[in-house]
Structure formats: C-alpha cells, structure tokens
C-alpha cells in the first residue's frame, strides 16, 4: 500500500473512487461526485493535481483512453481502512483494542456493546 499519508482532500477523492461501485471511475464523473456528494467544487486542474499526487503515492492509476481518463484504485478501501485503524490503535491507544472500544462506548447501542464485548472476550481467550 502507498506508505505516504493522504491529505484531507486526497482522502475525499479516494472516498469517491472507492464508493463509485465499479473498478474505475471516469474523471468527469469523479468531479461530479466530489461536487454532489462532498460539496467540493474543485476545478478540473485541481482534481488532476490530486490525482497526480495520488498516483505518486501509489493509491490510484489514471488511464487515458481516447479523449477520456479513468481513475483505477490501486489500494483497496478495506486495506486503507485497516491500515488507518491499526495506526490509530498504535498511536492513540497503545495498541489496545479494548481502550479504543472504551473510547467509543458512548456512541454504541447496548446491542452493539454486547456484541463487541463478546468479540473482545474471544480475543482475550486466544
């Protein structure tokens, strides 16, 4: 996976790429998605700059076919999410999933809390 950190704007671009639901997203569709779903009215040149940086960081590949460009994710959403979660655990919770869950406990429903407690108990048993 690309080891370099993503800026906030690059994360929004990647969310559009990942959430498009296909293996690739047309460049012009990406611009529309940024505007419609994230209220980001970036100019074409700005989006191209983001994509150039994302290619440099090895998160996407931009393919040109005729007059059109397509953005293909190189890093998959789940891999990125897992990496981010592990990094957050290491930095803010000393690698402890229990501490992380405890920090979120106020946002969990009782049912979700019980499910997580069961999962954590299983982890402890291992």
TrEMBL record:
Chain coiled-coil ranges = none
Q: Name one GO biological process term.
A: negative regulation of DNA-templated transcription
MF terms from GO for this chain are: DNA binding
Pfam families reported in the protein's UniProt record: Penicillinase_R
Keyword vocabulary terms for this entry: DNA-binding, Transcription, Transcription regulation
Gene3D superfamilies per the UniProt record, alphabetical = Penicillinase repressor domain (1.10.4040.10), Winged helix-like DNA-binding domain superfamily/Winged helix DNA-binding domain (1.10.10.10)
The similarity comment for this entry is: Belongs to the BlaI transcriptional regulatory family.
Q: What is this protein called?
A: Beta-lactamase repressor BlaI
Q: Which organism is it from?
A: Anaerostipes rhamnosivorans
